[in-house]
């Protein structure tokens, strides 16, 4: 059963509003059917990945952004579990290092891009620079940008320029054969609360919770505004945003898997065809093997 993935794609034509996207929708599917559909999609992804690797002409960059406890890690684990690890490059971006702060904000993300024939998965990404940094502009001061020595200088023009940098970065990638998919896992504040409580109550999950999580949760409204503006400014035809309901993890994973599968299908991937001379040589080599005693 195919999901209409267009309903989750942020428009490039009209003003983006998070309130237009549900957090718990799951259509007519139940959890068991959803799991079966996920397995089908994973088989498709495995087949497409092999063709991507064999052709070696394009790469795929998949970006995951979300609030804490939205399910990024588990989505990556479940959706990508059928892929060949040799063809994937997974990066989880944390606070920049001192070396990374000595370069422009995109530098470390350039370094993590997938090579041709491979799939790159970024758990958090260059968007942190217009999300967490928008909520905490003091973090930008660590970048030592000459024109910005205090947070009051980071006005609307500063952020507009940063969105433009991101659009240009992504355009350069798509112009050179990288297909970009960006997922925002849209979890509700109520569901996040329940997942935090689960982490506190389950000793096996205690390590996932930190006091700082509640400090960021208190800034929920500011984060939603930052996400809304970032998606509005950077959703393009070549690098689309998908706003996926995240209150039901099984449905989140299914939507993501089908978006990726449909994207691969549109790429029209094919195994490379050998030139006639090389194909003829294969037949000679085949005969040599058959003639072995």
TrEMBL record:
Keywords: Kinase, Transferase. InterPro entries: P-loop_NTPase, Polyphosphate_phosphotransfera, PPK2-rel_1, PPK2-related. It comes from the Bacteria. The keyword Transferase applies. Residues 29-269 form the Polyphosphate kinase-2-related domain. GO terms for molecular function: kinase activity. PANTHER family: POLYPHOSPHATE:AMP PHOSPHOTRANSFERASE (PTHR34383:SF3), POLYPHOSPHATE:AMP PHOSPHOTRANSFERASE-RELATED (PTHR34383). Belongs to the polyphosphate kinase 2 (PPK2) family. Class I subfamily. This is Polyphosphate kinase 2 family protein. It comes from Pedobacter albus.
């Amino acid at each position: 059963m195919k999901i209409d993935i267009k309903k989750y794609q942020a428009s490039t034509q009209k003003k983006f509003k998070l309130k237009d996207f549900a957090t718990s929708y799951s259509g007519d599917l139940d959890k068991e059917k959803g799991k079966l559909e996920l397995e089908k999609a994973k088989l498709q992804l495995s087949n497409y990945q092999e063709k991507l690797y064999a052709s070696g002409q394009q790469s795929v960059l998949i970006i995951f952004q979300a609030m804490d406890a939205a399910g990024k890690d588990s989505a990556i684990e479940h959706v990508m579990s059928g892929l060949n690890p040799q063809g994937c490059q997974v990066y989880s971006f944390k606070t920049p290092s001192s070396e990374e702060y000595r370069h422009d904000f995109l530098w470390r993300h350039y370094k993590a891009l997938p090579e041709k024939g491979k799939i790159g998965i970024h758990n958090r990404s260059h968007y942190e620079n217009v999300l967490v940094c928008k909520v905490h502009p003091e973090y930008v001061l660590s970048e030592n940008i000459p024109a910005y020595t205090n947070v009051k200088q980071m006005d609307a023009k500063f952020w507009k320029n940063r969105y433009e940098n991101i659009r240009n970065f992504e355009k350069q990638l798509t112009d050179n054969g990288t297909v970009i998919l960006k997922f925002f896992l849209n979890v509700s504040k109520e569901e996040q609360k329940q997942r935090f409580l689960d982490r506190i109550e389950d000793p096996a999950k205690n390590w996932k919770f930190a006091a700082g999580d509640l400090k960021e949760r208190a800034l929920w409204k500011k984060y939603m505004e930052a996400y809304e503006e970032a998606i509005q400014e950077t959703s393009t035809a070549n690098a689309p945003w998908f706003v996926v309901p995240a209150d039901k993890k099984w449905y989140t994973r299914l939507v993501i898997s089908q978006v990726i599968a449909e994207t691969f299908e549109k790429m029209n991937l094919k195994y490379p065809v050998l030139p006639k001379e090389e194909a003829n040589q294969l037949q000679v080599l085949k005969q040599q093997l058959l003639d072995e005693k």
